[in-house]
Amino acid sequence: MLEEMGITPDHTVREKKPTLRTVGLAVLATVRMQRMQVAWAENKKVHESLIKKLESMKRAQGQSTKKRIASGRFGFE
């Protein structure tokens, strides 16, 4: 399609091979990402457990509020 438009690609230019430095940086980045993934998973578990605890506390507080209203006590004593 490029040739039909009159553009001929230059075949003499080759892509550069990755250098040792580039490969090393890629390996380091991969290792760092794996460590961050583990840390992220741990933080996610802690976050989920905190949310569950908060929801259970809200439910318990809601039930105790309903009991106080039914008994006529509003906590203003």
Written overview of the protein:
The chain has 77 residues and is mainly α. The chain has a domain at 38-68. Helices cover 68% and strands 0% of the residues. It is built from one helix and no strands.
What keywords describe this structure?
1 helix, single chain, 68% helix, mainly alpha, 77 residues
Distance between the termini: 86 Å
Biggest sheet descriptor: none
- The helix content, as a percent range, equals 55-70%
Mean pLDDT: 83
Low-confidence stretches: none
Could you state the order of secondary-structure elements as H and E? H
Give a count of the beta strands, DSSP E runs of length 2 or more: 0
Multimeric state = single chain
Question: Given the structure, what is the number of helices?
Answer: 1
Topology:
Layout: H1 20-71
Tell me briefly what this model is.
The protein is mainly α and 77 residues long. It has one helix at residues 20-71.
